[in-house]
Design goal:
Blueprint (H helix, E strand, L loop, with lengths): L2 E6 L7 H10 L2 E4 L5 H4 L9 H12 L3 E8 L6 H4 L3 H18 L6 E6 L21 H12 L4 E6 L8 H16 L5 E4 L2 E2 L9 H9 L4 E9 L4 H12 L4 E6 L25 H12 L49 E11 L2 E10 L7 E6 L5 E6 L2 E3 L4 E5 L12 E9 L8 E4 L1
Parallel strand pairs: 1-2, 1-9, 2-3, 3-4, 4-5, 5-6, 6-8, 7-8, 8-9
Antiparallel strand pairs: 10-11, 11-16, 12-15, 12-17, 13-16, 14-15
Helix pairs in contact: 5-6, 9-10
The structure holds ligand G3I.
Length: about 425
């Protein structure tokens, strides 16, 4: 049920070795640079989605979903934005979020709304032109984003937030906790996880993911690369994500070592010739060893505890808060109830489409669901996620995966698919168990 993604660079879409590997191995895509502020709004009020759309279209036409990266960041601002300050910069940020998110409305799985807003060592905010517009700039960005595209998950994304005892991790944790308490719309936290000797994979990484998830947000590993690509460390990261039910997936920051922003570190799963590295095998083995199961999920192997070299270099200014208990979202004894389901077309292009089905529980919680429909034409499902498909020909049946069968009374869950042929929105029947 988790995705495994990669960053894609538009300039490499003509490289057939690159696209072959990317298409074969990954089902989530992040634009490495093309959805950033300088790329999408090179002149104020003039948006350019040429390269962003090249990546988006390649991804969706190959059955992949897309993470949006990124809307508000102190880096990769176009010159006109760098020279703004105060209320005009604040307005420019709001306009930028609205402009980009409306172009991709309903099409992006999750947006990195705000990127890298925390200082590396103090646990406080990083100084930047955005920060100088007022401390509320982050929540304004999230509220703007929610209005612009209510269907996208909204993430805060940062690096060096992997080690639970680091002050930066605590700073971001406290912001997310505050946002959840005050109803600021935030759905997820992205952990870039660029691991190297200065910022090594910490033995408490799983604790960090668990503690953030316990605040009521999803967690995603958004830019994974590991200096030297230790097979063991890659497996540890995968097992840590698998151990946290709200860890949605993992994205590596590039395909081959030669595609990496740190190519000299050979930090990825494929070498410069496109060959699978030992880390690839260890990731695949960890994924294959995972047993999908209803909550409480089995705990994958615990990673080795932190070695002295994992100790924080910046010392935490205060001790970490105790881990809040994780409360189960559903009572396991909930009575079965009815359900309903609706389908919408997320995107379509000549010869193909992407659709999403929302399953809604009735007056009681449900523990499983089965959605059925008949195509009137002859679309073919090419890839389906968050559901298990059966049926053949024009009759389609999709039942829940082990991890998304339980839905609270009145609550919803979704599954999605890409298809070839013309998009349809048939009426659906939903059976609950
Ligand atoms: O495309 C131009 C090329 O025409 C020009 O000749 C060349 C000369 O410098 O620059 C090329 O653009 C570079 C671009 O990458 C594409 O390769 C930029 O200079 C360079 O600054 C840019 O670096 C990107 C970096 O973000 C910028 O901050 C990296 O590719 C990208 O991997 C990196 O990604 C970030 C995430 O967004 C946020 N987290 C950290 C991560 C790594 O730094």
């Amino acid at each position: 049920g988790r995705y495994f993604g990669t960053a894609i660079a538009s300039g490499k879409l003509g490289d057939s070795q690159y696209t072959t590997i990317a298409n074969r191995e990954f089902n989530m895509v992040t634009a490495e640079n093309e959805m950033k502020i300088d790329a999408t709004e090179p002149n104020r009020g003039q948006f350019d989605f040429t390269n962003a759309d090249r990546i988006y279209n390649w991804a969706v036409q190959n059955g992949k979903r897309v993470r949006g990266h990124t809307l508000a960041w102190h880096q990769q601002q176009p010159g006109w934005m760098q020279s703004l300050s105060g209320s005009s910069l604040r307005q420019a940020m709001i306009d930028h979020i609205n402009g980009v998110m409306s172009h991709y409305k309903g099409k992006i799985y999750a947006w990195d709304v705000v990127n890298e807003a925390y200082d590396d060592s103090s646990g406080g905010r990083r100084d930047s032109n955005l920060q100088r517009t007022g401390n509320d700039w982050i929540e304004v960005a999230f509220r703007t984003a929610r209005n612009a595209d209510p269907d996208a998950k909204l993430c805060y994304n940062d690096y060096n937030t992997d080690n639970w005892s680091w002050a930066k991790t605590q700073g971001v944790y406290n912001m997310v906790k505050d946002f959840k308490q005050r109803g600021v719309p935030i759905d997820c936290v992205g952990f870039q996880s660029h691991f190297n000797s200065g910022s090594p994979y910490p033995g408490n990484y799983r604790t960090t993911l668990q503690n953030f998830a316990a605040l009521g947000v999803d967690v995603q590993i958004t830019e994974l690369d590991i200096q030297g690509a230790s097979a063991q460390t890659y497996a540890n990261v995968v097992n840590d994500c698998l151990a946290v039910p709200r860890c949605n997936g993992i994205t590596t920051w590039g395909v081959r070592d030669s595609d990496s922003w740190r190519s000299g570190d050979t930090p990825l799963l494929f070498d410069g010739n496109g060959n699978k590295k030992a880390a690839y095998t260890s990731v695949l083995n960890a994924l294959n060893a995972a047993v999908p199961s209803d909550s409480p999920s089995p705990t994958p192997p615990v990673s080795p505890s932190a070695t002295p070299s994992d100790s924080p270099s910046p010392s935490p200014s205060d001790s970490p808060s105790p881990t809040p208990p994780v409360s189960p979202s559903q009572s396991p004894t909930a009575e079965p109830g009815g359900c309903s389901a609706t389908m919408r077309t997320v995107n379509s292009w000549p010869g193909g489409f992407q659709s999403e089905v929302t399953v809604r529980a009735g007056g009681s919680a449900i523990r499983g669901w089965t959605v059925s429909w008949n195509w009137s034409g002859s679309p073919t499902i090419t890839q389906l996620w968050n559901g298990v498909r059966s049926g053949s020909g024009s009759a389609v049946t999709v039942r829940n995966e082990s991890y998304n069968g339980t839905v609270a009374a009145g609550g919803t869950t979704t599954f999605g698919f890409t298809g070839s042929g013309g998009a349809e929105t048939p009426s659906l029947t939903c059976a609950a168990s």
